[in-house]
Sequence to fold (513 residues):
Amino acid sequence: MKRFTLSLVLLAGLAACSDSNFVSADEADGAYHGDSGYGEAGGDDDDDTDIGSEDESDFFSLAPAPTPTFVFIANPERDTVTRVTVPDLEVITAEVGNHPDLVEVTPDYSMGVTFNSGSDDVSIIESMTLEETRVDVRENLDAMEMSPDGGWVVLYNSLALPDDNTSGATSTKEVSFIELTTATHSALAMGFQPRDVLFTEAGDKAVFLGDAWLGVVELDGELSVDLVQIADDLLDPPASEECILSPDGDFALLRQKDADQLVLVDLITLEVSRIEVGDTPTDLDITPDGSEAIAVARGSGELWIYDFQDPTAEPTVLSLPAGETLGSVVFGPEGAPALLYSTASGRSRFVSWDRATDEFTVRPLPKPVASVGMDPTGGTALFLHADTDADDMDPGYEGHFGLSMVDLSDFLSNDYILPAPPSGFAHSDDGLNGFLILEEHKALQVLDYGRLLVDEKELRSDPVHVGTLPTTTWAYVNQEHELGRLSFYDIQTDTLKTMTGFELNAGIEIEEN
Fold:
């Protein structure tokens, strides 16, 4: 499930689904590399299991959290959070717990929340006053998610136990819940190690995904977990690779690795059933209006389309173009064509799917796909290409990273060779521009979707994160600097302002160009 809506499936948080979404990133360091999921070029299409899994990783971590007028930046080495006011660049830094790994902002922008991994606590910060309330959580947690209504944050362990455990009794199966308005903490033993947590749109349930179990927690009363067995084999269950929730919160639909059925969980009755799907399903998504669930069956070359109001009803099955290996789908807004592709086939192509006519068209690219997405309007498709080569690629792209922009009205395209792997992406609220940073490359790439052009804005140091301020024309780039460096770019005036020294609350230097 894609967590972007540039929609970039580098690209709703590149929100299954942040400010941008790229799929097929290397989670270890947030950049795209040549080994990021491609199979051998020209792989054997008759043996689908040989080409590997599709790669749909979110590559953002520790990103500044924006509001329309503020940017909150976690400074892990200084145990602080900095609030920068835009556009006057007023800076205030507040102390939080030890090593704040990330900061989230509630949907109404009234609170920022940091997870402080070094002190096993969470800081709840009033946006206007920066007043902090600190809440202890369970030890050995590494992930935090906020409910869509901003009422809760949930912390859990998504990784295995540490190799060198010297801290005493340690568990990976505990979950901490914090109700933000009252700053109260509750802890539960989940009974299994969660892979992910999803919230219903109403924010009344948290659903924890494991391999053998699903954990359902009601958030509107005393907290307790209902365990739902989703695998027949409890000793060696198949890996749960994706889970989606119906918009009304009634159903969860899961895709398991190498399974030939999908798991359907009724979140009201907690009953489990299995529904048919094609051979080797490799992607599971929801249509933009939430009415349908789509499974890509790569092995049988099919799309399985389910009514998400009645998932047990007979699905519609569409055959994909013959001879093509397609493992993932990304949707733009209603009316835009969907895009089908594979990060594992090593082929330099994609397929457009006209949802009104169910017509599929195979289209060329200069290199194999590493990540795919669309601008928020659905007018432009974006493709990232890693430095892995293939037999059918354009010769000029050999050994290079690349970016392709495709106008989805007439499929006019423009392709760029990139000097370094992408490490972050965001798009403007109006959907007219994108902002891309590259690993150890001192520049901001500004994408003009209407003209399919890229302009480069020089930065003073290596970029770390990029984002946009909601309801404004500003983009920001957090950069490497011992005292903190942040640049703001206004697309309307083509103005770049750089602030240095913000982590100290003093000695701030502002440069405009």
User: Anything to note?
Assistant: The two ends are 40 Å apart (CA to CA). The longest strand covers residues 441-448. Residues 1-46, 57-61 have pLDDT under 50 and may be disordered.
